[in-house]
Design a protein that fits this description.
Shape: elongated
Helix content: 25-40%
CATH class of the largest domain: Alpha Beta
Distance between the termini: 24 Å
Number of helices: 13
CATH architecture of the largest domain: 3-Layer(aba) Sandwich
Structural class: alpha/beta
CATH superfamily of the largest domain: Periplasmic binding protein-like II
Radius of gyration: 23 Å
Largest sheet: 10 strands, mixed
Strand content: 15-25%
């Protein structure tokens, strides 16, 4: 696809609409994100296809998929978008005030249990910013702009992303004092297998790194299963059984006396990584959120019990 053909076929408003459809995978979702009528958006896409003389979108019952030509256009427009955002960041300079909306994606343990109580400090530092905290379910994608930046479990392995390791974190086995009063704490893995266990819903585990229960007990079988790390903490606290919980969620002033460590006392170790689509890394509102996230995690390093990371790395 030659630049002259691209420039003559669409303006940036058409490009913005096409990118939204490509990222949403459907007209309805894109029209909502753009704030335009779905029928209008569909007509604009049809006109764009007519201008190029080729199909860009394959309409399906469940949405729209990119054709080979659509993929080529999408990749070209993403590069153009990245250059535009980079130029904007340079023109604004490093001292530009962060303003607008910044959306942070995070797993519920980190997002709800750690980040949410600290958002007030971020809001005070950047009063012109609106911060949105959203969950990161399976299939979550920064490329589809479901968030501006995201905290992920483990290093992201694909996508046009830059990533920074925030910290390692540890997990251990916990039970409530009420549960242990009726069911004495296990002394080893064999006795642990006889207890009621709390864990994830196995077929809904969002990432392979979250399947850590087997590190505590081979053949772990949960009696109570929840998709939420916060939910697991609450279930264990209420006496549902023994769970493998994030240490930073299970201990601290708000949990004092409500949970007890139980044998076996080994710990599982995982890592949180901060990822940003490369086109957004220098945008003031995104940079402000990334810098603050890194800072607050370093300030709370002892709670995570792991090594801190440094610096962004571009993914292959």
């Amino acid at each position: 696809m030659q630049k002259s053909t691209l420039a003559g076929a669409l303006d940036w408003d058409d490009a913005r609409m096409f990118l939204a459809v490509a990222r949403a995978g459907q007209m309805l979702g894109a029209s909502r994100a753009l704030g335009v009528n779905q029928a209008t958006l569909s007509r604009r896409m049809a006109s764009l296809e007519a201008a190029f003389g080729t199909k860009l979108l394959a309409r399906r019952t469940h949405g729209s998929e990119l054709t080979d030509a659509g993929v080529a256009l999408f990749e070209t427009l993403e590069r153009v978008e990245a250059e535009m955002l980079g130029a904007q960041a340079q023109l604004q300079g490093t001292g530009a005030a962060a303003a607008g909306v910044v959306r942070i994606g995070a797993p519920d343990g980190f997002g709800v249990g750690f980040l949410a109580p600290r958002l007030a400090a971020f809001a005070e530092r950047h009063p012109a910013l609106v911060v949105q905290l959203v969950p990161t379910p399976r299939g979550f994608s920064l490329s589809r702009r479901e968030a501006d930046l995201a905290v992920m479990v483990g290093r992201p392995e694909k996508g046009r992303l830059v990533a920074r390791k925030l910290t390692d974190y540890t997990l251990g086995l916990y039970a409530s004092p009420a549960y242990l009063a009726v069911h004495p704490a296990p002394r080893d893995a064999a006795e642990l297998a006889e207890h009621r266990l709390v864990g994830y819903v196995e077929d809904l585990i969002a990432a392979p790194a979250l399947n850590y229960a087997a590190e505590f007990l081979r053949g772990w079988r949960s009696s109570v299963e929840l998709t939420s790390a916060i939910g697991q903490v609450e279930a264990v606290k209420a006496g549902s059984g023994i769970g493998a919980l994030h240490d930073y969620l299970a201990v601290g002033p708000c949990r004092e006396g409500s949970l007890a460590r139980v044998p076996p006392r080994q710990r599982a170790v995982r890592s949180y990584w901060l990822a940003i689509h490369e086109s957004l890394r220098d945008v003031a509102r995104v940079r402000a959120a990334a810098d603050w996230l890194t800072e607050v995690v370093r300030q709370e390093a002892p709670a995570f019990g792991g090594d801190q990371g440094r610096g962004f790395r571009k993914l292959p």
